[in-house]
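notes to self, project folder thing:

trying the whole complex as one job this time. last attempt i did each chain seperately and stitching them together was a nightmare. two parts in total, labels are on each line so i dont mix them up again. if this works i'll redo the older ones the same way
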Amino acid sequence: MGQTISEKILSTHAGHDVKAGELAIVNIDGVMASDTTAPLTLKAFKEMGGTTPWNSDNTIFVIDHASPAPNEHIANLHKFIREFANKTNSILYDEGSGICHQIMVEEQHVKPGQLVIGADSHTVTYGALGAFSTGVGSTDLAAIMITGKTWIKVPESIKIILNGKPNPGITAKDIILDIVGKLGSNGATYKTLEYVGSTLEFLSLGDRMTIANMSVEMGGKAGIFETTGLELPYKFESVIGDADAEYLETITIDVSVIRPKIAKPHSLENICDIDEVLGIKIDIAFIGTCTNGRLEDLQLAASILKGEKLAPGVRMLITPASRNVLNKAMADGTMNILSEAGATLIPPGCGPCVGTHLGVPGNEEVILSTANRNFPGRMGNPNSQIYLASPAVVAASALTGVITDPISIGKNE
Amino acid sequence: MVGKVHLYNIDNIDTDRIIPGKYTKTLDVSTFADHCLEDLDSDFKTKVQQGDILVGGWNFGCGSSREQAPIALKVSGISVVIARSFSRIFYRNAINIGLPILEIPEHDISDRIRLEIELESGKVADGDIIYSATPLPQVMIDILNEGGLVAYLKKFGKYKI
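result (full assembly):
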């Protein structure tokens, strides 16, 4: 019997063959914590008797969730992380560097076939590279910093076969919202989603990150793409599941029929075609986050907003996923276009997505966002309404002031 | 152990509702009790007492990896969380901080009743009705028996499965 991608990667890291359902102790290639989770991680690490991480070169801290610090309490937590990283020669990406998941991929802290654990649920994003990556809490991460290992139940896998070419105006975000809509918030709990199929030839690394990122919104332990068609600036061995591997379930999706998708408040259970919500008035348009803050997302928004102005009464927030993204978007004029259209530019980081600062909505305000979660209170106010969509839909809607299909206004680049 | 039930028979109660992100950025974890579940039930903090039991629906604790979520329930006084199922990160986090959780997929537990719980066997008594929780893997039982992962690793120095 062959192995799934998950079984292959976990077998390599366990040092012996493992099968779905078995418990294994696995060696970890790298760990990451953000400013939300690192302070508790470091507290637990010290309580466990830790002094220096098992592998400082692969211990990464990113100050992104409340960055730059909005108050003195958080500033002191940042200082605590900074001091630990400096003292132990761990790797620190300080405020302004960007969102942890974007940085982990950009800076090559994770590569195909590796096993990387982060104290953030969207660590599943690195499945875009054919890596097994998953989120844990702070104390679990501290234990890896001590031992270099963790225990894991080898997950069963669901194979998602993506076939066909997406229509103009349809993005990776619409594809993943379609998948979440089909499987539900609980549809992949404890399981890995393994993405394959002919659509992969149309999916860039960024597209794959968008899809892998939201695997956790179905409860997935991981969401891994086979590396077919993946282009990286370095050589790597391909990561592919065996043809005779045992999958719990196989789901085939015809990408060519997918319409723009929207997740309505306040749950990923409420996903519909855009047609059902066209014309709903919005107050805030938000483009950014680990799901959709990459250069191609900002460029897509700029292609729609070029030479235009935001609809009266609409505010727009733009958060590049990293400094690298910001620099490129400044160099090619993307940021100018967005600013001239009337958008508010926020420094690279998690920004308004996590509700700490930089764009908390008011009561009854409607937000159309490229983020991955629309839970009540997610953006800091439980009395606001969060709709999730692709960058194309968010930009088109910022222009009209209501939820709008980009195709309908001739903005389908 | 015996405790009073706070029933939230709702599916997909996410960690943002257990403790909103805006309150998580502190090492003073006692402050979480002031905001635990506030967007779900603003009266929770005045109703809950030490030793009480929280009962949720399917996929309890989905969303972010924040360990602040089980910590918030623990510092609020919750002694055990029962749910039809748990999200995997919450499941690990709860055990790691020494908060017992019991997965009971099918049950008719009502609000504000008293349950008798035997943690070792995972048996929950609602009067004459006895529910059996899904057994935990041995490594999680060992972590829970030590009171959490910090104490477990201090004692054993490494994982045993």
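what i see at first glance: The first strand of chain B starts at residue 2 and ends at 7.
need to look closer tmrw
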